[in-house]
Write a structure and sequence with these properties.
By secondary structure, the protein is mostly helical. It contains 16 helices and no strands. It has one domain: ABC transporter involved in vitamin B12 uptake, BtuC (Orthogonal Bundle). Helix 3 packs parallel to helix 15, helix 5 packs across helix 14 and helix 7 packs across helix 8.
């Protein structure tokens, strides 16, 4: 169904015409520009940060030299140019793509399950995708070409099994938000155990590589991982962006959604498949990075709007900036050693999750 044919909510025409309602349910230009500005600022900060000391002026000159119609002579040596364009910038772009993907997937799960605590990690989707990717990586099945690599395919199958199992557990327990989260925790534990067993069957060197990957990392030399992830981001991101209005309609219930001309089963299935594929693609190149899909949509919801017409696109910008910023800390806090970026997101996300639970607990008493 075309997006334009759907009402955004069950509001009346007079309500929808009110300026305050338009601000709450529409994506404002100012919020978008602020998000882009933050993303660009974090990008420049990431480009000048790292163990290798590159002159800031030379970095800016090299970056502007790539802008069409602008010719700027760079002071960087060939080795420094290689560090900038083959290590730092690919890692920055990869972090932005992964962060944006996980945040969009998390906001979509929260909308489709009508549960603000849902995210790929807590639903077990990341663990399922990780298990599929471990099988492909650990047993030499990482074959293929471009976006048709077997690792994302195996990760997608694991992610889809995990989210469907969490939904089945929730349905059997009354389909409450708490049951859904508990089902996700159970699936995460199950797939984590399966990952551990699979890793034990590998030789020492391969097991060390897989474990390092599972901790969550953005290590890349070149642009291979970006070209692998980009088609999934473009395809799934477009599907979820088109369906963001559906998420607002689904909040009023299935019967009301049908009366508004929406097929809730088809919309829900489309969103779940697209979000799971997006999560799987991100996990296949970065490992398990927790809580991005929980923290970022909540930030957008608290600061900007409760409408998924706003939350989904802004989560892409904020998620990209968030993970790129966290990666700066991963590269610099213990320089020249690096921390797995998944550890830092857990340090940020776990207290945030506890705070959200605490607020919800007191808001209901």
């Amino acid at each position: 169904m075309a997006e334009a044919s759907l009402p955004t909510t069950a509001l009346t025409d007079s309500d929808a015409a009110h300026p305050a309602v338009r601000r709450a349910f529409g994506l404002s230009v100012s919020a978008t520009l602020i998000g882009i500005a933050v993303l660009v600022a974090v990008g420049f900060l990431s480009a000048i940060s790292g163990a290798a000391g590159l002159p800031v002026g030379g970095i800016f000159a090299s970056l502007f030299d790539w802008v069409p119609l602008i010719g700027v002579e760079s002071s960087l040596s060939d080795q420094q140019e290689s560090i900038l364009f083959e290590i730092r910038l690919p890692r920055l772009v990869l972090g932005m793509l992964v962060g944006g993907s996980l945040a969009v997937a998390g906001s979509s799960y929260q909308g489709v399950f009508r549960n603000p605590l849902a995210d790929p990690y807590l639903l077990g989707v990341s663990a399922g995708a990780g298990f599929g990717a471990v099988l492909a990586l650990g047993f030499g099945l990482d074959l293929g070409w471009g976006p048709f690599d077997t690792v994302p395919a195996a990760a997608f199958l694991g992610a889809l099994v995990a989210v469907l199992a969490s939904m089945a557990i929730a349905r059997g327990g009354g389909a409450s938000p708490a049951t859904l989260l508990l089902g996700g925790v159970a699936m995460a534990a199950l797939f984590s155990a399966a990952q551990t067993y699979a890793i034990q069957q590998l030789d020492e060197n391969r097991a060390r590589e897989v474990l390092s990957w599972l901790f969550g990392q953005l290590n890349t030399t070149g642009w291979k991982e970006i070209w692998l992830l980009l088609p999934y981001v473009a395809m799934c991101g477009a599907v979820l962006h088109v369906h963001r209005r559906h998420l607002d309609v689904l909040r009023v219930g299935d019967d009301e959604a049908r009366s508004l001309g929406l097929d809730p089963v088809r919309s829900r299935l489309t969103v779940i498949v697209a979000a799971s594929l997006l999560t799987a693609a991100a996990v296949s190149v970065s490992g398990l990075i927790a809580f991005v899909g929980l923290v970022v949509p909540h930030i957008v919801r608290l600061l900007i709007s409760h409408s998924y017409r706003v939350i989904v696109p802004l989560s892409a910008l904020v998620g990209a900036a968030f993970l790129a910023f966290v990666d700066i800390g991963a590269r610099t806090l213990l320089a020249p050693e690096e921390l797995p970026v998944g550890i830092l997101t857990a340090f940020v996300g776990a207290p945030f999750f506890a705070l959200v639970l605490w607020r919800d607990r007191w808001s209901t008493t």
